[in-house]
Amino acid sequence: MINIAVFLDFKHDNLTNNSKSLLSFANKLVENNAGAQLYLCTVQNINKCYVPATVKTESITRFTIDNNVHFSSNASLDNVLSHLIDTKITHIFCTKSTTNDLIFAKLSMILNFNIITNIKSLEVENGLFHFYKSIFSGKAIAKMNGTNEPCIAIFPKGFTGDVLSMDSLDTKEIKIDHISSTYDSSSIIVEDSLIQNEIQLSEAEIVVGAGRGLKGPENWGIIENFAKKLKAATACSKPVSDLNWRPHHEHVGQTGIKINPKLYIACGISGAIQHLAGVNGSGTIVVINNDAEAPFVKHADYIILGDLFEIVPELTKLFDEA
Fold first, then answer.
1. Can you give the pTM of this predicted structure?
2. Is the CB of residue 24 less than 8 Å from the CB of residue 163?
3. CATH superfamily name and code, 3-193
4. N or C: which end of the chain has fewer CB within 10 A?
5. Residues 295, 303 contacting (CB under 8 angstroms)
6. Are 222 and 309 in contact (CB under 8 A)?
7. Do 223 and 234 form a contact (C-beta atoms < 8 A)?
8. Is the fold of 3-193 the same as that of 198-321?
9. Contact between 246 and 267 (Cβ < 8 Å)
10. Which CATH number fits domain 198-321: 3.90.550.10, 3.40.50.12780, 3.40.228.10, 3.40.50.1220?
């Protein structure tokens, strides 16, 4: 028996594009496997949810705890675990995000579920899951042998799956069941800033990144202003997060977040191979740098050579005038 729990992400009570794609994919998977069941879950504080009428589930279960603190401790996971066990969940699907990384790392340890990351697609044959995942920084796809062991499957932005359009499909409002846990003061708290950012890296179509060329955290205002004008998310290189100039959840690269925006603008980033591994899925890459020999220059679609402290404010002004 295949029972899939899909954890959905919302922004202003609306499903994110990543979750639309994941929900569409999971629904097709369930439809094509007799007896399989689909359950929808969220850890966010929402009051209603609309999903395509083709989705067969009748309710969505919200797992939350008091004071908007999510999955903070083993104690606060009790109700969640009970529900997952009672419904005999065999597979948990979620999208890649900083918050989900924290949640599902803990869940995998408690449930003894394997975690499979960087999934591009999967097939089910005779009850066995065949995973296709990205390896070698996205340069190759590996197929994992079929398994029926319980697991948590984490899908990055851009995985195989049709993105649902709520405008073109009939939708239904689904009930939200509240399963509340008690806040534990000894818990590890997920900062609100990680959850409530206006534009998250995993969802952003435009990302403005910056590196040590900014010379210090006090100069980051020009990047934030530029990003705001573009309605973009902000990112940084690993050295910047290591120096605590920017929070770790903005670190883009091989050991950080891998992004797939339509446009990535890199300001003052040399372009080491570790950083390139996190951004090579971008549609268009624009590099602003005063070093014509920087590695990033060879990988950019467009290059602006010059002082970013002059160029970025001027670009920001252009959008003010547009």
1. 0.63
2. yes
3. HUPs (3.40.50.620)
4. C
5. no
6. yes
7. yes
8. yes
9. no
10. 3.40.50.1220
